[in-house]
Specification:
Number of strands: 2
Strand content: under 5%
Shape: rod-shaped
Number of helices: 3
Mean pLDDT: 81
Strand order of the largest sheet: 1-2
Largest sheet: 2 strands, antiparallel
Low-confidence stretches: 1-14
Number of domains: 1
Radius of gyration: 28 Å
Order of helices and strands: EEHHH
Structural class: mainly alpha
Amino acid sequence: MASTTQSKQGGQTGTGGNGYTDFTKFGEQAFKNFQNFKVPGFDTEGLMSSHRHNMETLAELQKAATETARAFGQLQSQFARQAMEDAAAFSRTMMQAGTNAEGQAEVQSSSMKQAMKRATEQGQELSEIFNKSQQSMAKICSSRMSECMDECSSMAKKAAKTAKR
């Protein structure tokens, strides 16, 4: 269920149906609010463009985080299903071992070894997904920060030229 709120200027801000703030729409509304704001030597258009790119980057990061959370959830569901199947198989094997203490100990030892191996593999799989996601999001942030520095430098040069006139 998507919630939205009406802003004083008549635009909507809120969620894009996913429960998270839609930063792109928020940036567009901010741009509209400051579009007529003029200060001599200040590149309002450049600042708003930079801000819009920042909001687009936030939306991209939000999407990547949501996809990672979804992948984690799917894997955890798969792991839980596998654990239930393993528990059922263990119960069947224990029943077949009967009352033989040596047979039961062997079944328990083998089952524990398999469970520990599987848990380690699952932990590594989740860790790999998290690390790939973190690296991807760090690249997105780094790229945007570099672009932003270039934009700020360009705006400063533009302001310096305007001030010399």
